[in-house]
Write a structure and sequence with these properties.
single chain; 132 residues; alpha+beta; Aspartate Aminotransferase, domain 1; 6-stranded antiparallel β-sheet; disordered N terminus; disordered C terminus
Length: 132
């Protein structure tokens, strides 16, 4: 977690410094080959043509993680994260920008980017590179 984060005795994360919409945009666009594109009137952030996050409003960003990532984010920051459903599918974590810090949001965005990025952009982990 980020250097501005605090953890309660129960292990729940909360932010002491919040994220502005411009900072959220900057973090998303700092990822390799990330681009911003309109998505039904809202900014979306994509890599390889696939959406990894949307800036739903000035207060909220939806980050497209897998189910495990969504649940982990909510467990880590229950005051700042909530489930986003698309029909009957758990599709994203809704992040309230005023309740998280930039490093925490950056971790979520990086995880989502990695799920959507083309294979050529992903760096193999050290154990795989030793085997090649």
């Amino acid at each position: 977690m980020g250097q501005c984060a605090n953890v309660t005795r129960a292990g729940a994360y909360f932010a002491t410094v919040t994220v502005s919409p411009d900072e959220a945009r900057a973090v998303a666009l700092s990822l390799p080959e990330a681009v911003e594109q309109d998505h039904h009137g809202r900014p979306s952030f994509r890599v390889g043509g696939k959406i990894f996050a949307t800036l739903w409003s000035d207060e909220r960003m939806n980050v497209m993680l897998d189910e495990g990532g969504i649940l982990t984010a909510i467990d880590s920051a229950p005051a700042g994260c909530e489930q986003v459903w698309w029909g009957e599918r758990l599709a994203a974590v809704g992040v309230t920008l005023s309740r998280v810090d930039r490093p925490f949001l950056g971790e979520l965005l990086t995880d989502a980017w990695e799920l959507k990025a083309p294979r050529r952009l992903l760096t193999p982990d050290a154990s795989r590179s030793k085997c090649l």
